[in-house]
Amino acid sequence: MEHITDILRQGLEEYGLTDKIDPWAIQNLDCYCQMLLEKNQVMNLTAIREAEGVARLHMLDCAALLRYCDFREKTLVDVGTGAGFPGMVLKMLAPSLHVTLLDSLNKRLDWLLECCEFLSLQNIRTLHGRAEEYGLKRGERENFDFATARAVADLRVLCELCLPFVKVGGKFLAMKSVGCSQELADAEHATKLLGGRVAQVEDYRVPGTQVTHRLIVIEKQTPTPGGYPRRWAKIQKEPL
Ligand code: SAM
């Protein structure tokens, strides 16, 4: 089996990212991969159970975002981070990024904090709770350059959970599969209503796989109107 650091290095090279990345980042990702697989034996963190799959389908998948955005010295909230995707990967690859990992499941966040400590990552914090509640809070609302979400919800719902966090001029990055065209069309109203505009749709192949994923970049143009996000029951029952 190929070594994980080689898989990561080759994948980043395929993306054309190697010059931008500190060699330590690859060592850190390798270590995070091992910690994830070990913890996954006792806590449900990922359905992927071997290192190569984690390196490609989680880490390189998340690393693709660096092709489309400059994260240096910026702030980012990762909504529904789970085991840290994409927030942890972006933090390791762009160390000057200030990252907030948000999830409603505290035990995953506790484990992520242990990882951050072990890897000596600075300027990274966790927020435990529901995105739709934090999105209303002063200090969190319209306070981030970027919000990200991967495998969390339908795009209409995601717009309501994520766009309130983004500053005007910032971006919401939704990581989706290529089969999301209908979802994208259905989210047009929500995007506009919450102050966003679809600025870019980028398809990319995950290195070393036949998997193609889609990144939807939604630019925040105007502030999100008061009253959004609504309560979870309302968001689910009446998506925008
Ligand atoms: N983003 C990670 C990834 O790509 O592997 C995790 C995906 S996991 C399927 C979805 C995560 O979103 C879960 O950890 C869940 O607790 C969290 N989540 C779902 N809805 C949420 C909400 N409204 N507020 C905060 N976290 C939420």
What brief labels describe this structure?
alpha/beta, binds S-adenosylmethionine
Q: What this model shows, in words?
A:
With 240 residues, the chain is α/β, with parallel strands linked by helices. It contains eleven helices and seven strands. Strands 3-2-1-4-5-7-6 form a seven-stranded mixed β-sheet, sandwiched between helices. Helix 1 packs parallel to helix 3 (51-63) and helix 2 (23-39) crosses helix 3 (51-63). It is globular, with a radius of gyration of 17 Å. The structure holds S-adenosylmethionine. S-adenosylmethionine binds next to strand 2 and helix 7.
Short description:
With 240 residues, this protein is an alpha/beta fold.
Tell me, what's the shape? globular
Q: What is the spatial order of strands in the main beta sheet? A: 3-2-1-4-5-7-6
Strand content: 15-25%
- Overall mean pLDDT stands at 96
Parts with pLDDT < 50 across at least 5 consecutive residues: none
Oligomer: single chain
The unique ligands bound to this protein are: S-adenosylmethionine
Q: What's the tally of helices?
A: 11
Rounded Rg: 17 Å
Query: Span between N and C termini?
Result: 47 Å
SSE pattern:
HHHHEHEHEHEHEHHEEH
Please count the beta strands (DSSP E, at least 2 residues each). Answer: 7
Approximate helicity band: 25-40%
What structural class results from the helix and strand content? Answer: alpha/beta
Largest sheet properties: 7 strands, mixed
